[in-house]
C-alpha cells in the first residue's frame, strides 16, 4: 500500500487535508473502516455508500481483496454508463422528437436545443450533480469528452464512410466552438467565476442558436427562389416537368413492433434526416444494409395482458435476432435495468407500431411514475393536512389510470397520447440525474482509493463512459449512409454540453454565494485539455479547407493521432514522468 499512499499526495497537484477522504491512507489499516464511517467527506451523496463498502467489506488489510473490490466498482461503473446510454437513446430521444414536433420547432431549432439536450443528457446531469469537490472531474470530463467526440468519433465517421462536408454549417459550428473554448480558457485562468461569467456561457449558446436560425431562414429563402418553376415555352416540356414532380419513390423506415428498441435513437435520427432530404428535394436511396420489412400490428399480441408482457420484455425478438454475440451479452446484462425503466418511463415513438401506445402499460405508468418521483425528489414525507403526499399522488394516478383504461382502445392510441412524451421526458430526466449522481460518487471513491487524480478520471473513465454511446450511434448512422448527420453532431453536441454544463453549474454555484462568485478547483491538466481541444478544432478547420471539405480517411487518422497524443501526454504527466502542459517546471 505504500505506492498508493505516496501517490495520493502527489497526483493532481492538490493538497490533501486531514478531513479529506483521501487522507484515509495515513490511517492505520485496521482503523480505516471506522475512520471512513465517521468522516463526512467519505459519506457520499448517493444511494450506495461506496467508500464504506470498499474499506469495510473489501478491507485494505488484504490487498488482493481490496483490488477485487476496486474491480467490482469499475464493473459497476461500466454498468451505470450502460444505463445512462440506454436511457438517453431508448427513452429520451424518441420522446424529445415528439415534443419538438408538438412545440412546432423547426428541425434546426430542435437539433440545437431539445434534441441536443437528449444526446447530451448524461454530460449535462453529470456536471449538475457535481459539488465543489468534484469540480475537477466535471471540468475535465466536459473538455475531455469534447476532444473524444471531435477527434475519435469524427475521425471514425471519416474512416468508415468518407464523404463531402457541407461547408457553411461546419464553419459555423467549428468557429463557435473555437470561440467558446477560448472564452472558457479566459474565464477559468484566475480560478474565480463571477455570476455574469457563468451566465455568459448560456448567452453564448443562445447566440449560436440565433445564428443557426438566421442561416436557416436565409437558406430557405434561397431554396424558395431556386425552386420556382422554370419558364418553359414548350407546353409538352412543362407538362412533363410537372408530372415528374411526384415521381420520386417514397422510402419508409421499418416500423418497430415495440417502442423500446436498440435502434430507437437511430430510427428517429434517420427519419428526421429523410424528411429533411425530401424537403431539400434530394433523392433518397433505399437502404441496403437493413432489410427489415415493415412490421405490422399483427406481430403484437392481441390480448391486452399478453401485450403488457410483450412490452415489458427487456429483450425484444427483433433486437435479439439482429444482434451479434457481443450485443446479445449486453442485452442480457442490461435486462434488469430495462424492466425497471420500461415500467417507469413512458415512450412515444413515431417509428413504432401505434407510436408506442401500450394501453395497460401506459395506465400503470400513470400510477407508479409520479409516486416514485416523490421519493427521488425527497418530498415523500410532505403531507397535506392528515393526507401524506405519497397517498395523494398514488390515488390521483390510480384514478387517472383507471379512467384512461376505460375510455381508450387497445389498438388505437388516444388523441392525447403525445402527452405521455412529456411525462416520459420528466421521468427519463430523473433517472439520468439519479444515475449520474451514482456515477460521480463511485468515480470519487475510485479516485481516492486508487490514487488516480480527479482530472485523469474525468479525461478517461467519465469522458469515455458518457461518449461511447455517441461513438456507436454516430458510426452506425454513417454506415447507414448518413455520414453528414453523424458528423454534424460531433461539433454542436459537445459545444452544447460544455457551455450548458459549465454555464449552469457555475451560475448556480455563484448565485448561491453572498458575493455572487465561486472559486473553481483547478488541476494541472486543465490547460493541456483546453489546448488539445483547440488543436483538434483548428486541425479540422485547416485540413478540410485545404482539401475542399472532403472528409477522407487520412482526416480520420490525423484526428486519431491527435487524441492518442493527448492521452499519452496526460498519462505521462499523471505518473509524473513529465510535467503537465501549461505548468512551470519545478520540483514537487
TrEMBL record:
The keyword Ion transport applies. It is found in: Membrane. It is a multi-pass membrane protein. Its main location: membrane. GO terms for biological process: intracellular calcium ion homeostasis. InterPro entries: CaCA_antiporter (IPR051359), NaCa_Exmemb (IPR004837), NCX_ion-bd_dom_sf (IPR044880). One of its GO terms (molecular function) is calcium:sodium antiporter activity. Residues 280-289 have a biased composition (Basic and acidic residues). GO terms for cellular component: membrane. Keywords: Antiport, Calcium, Calcium transport, Ion transport, Membrane, Transmembrane, Transmembrane helix, Transport. The chain crosses the membrane at residues 64-84, 142-163, 170-187, 199-218, 325-345, 384-406, 418-435, 441-464, 485-510, 530-550, 557-578. Pfam families: Na_Ca_ex (PF01699). The keyword Calcium applies. This is Sodium/calcium exchanger membrane region domain-containing protein. It comes from Aphidius gifuensis (Parasitoid wasp).
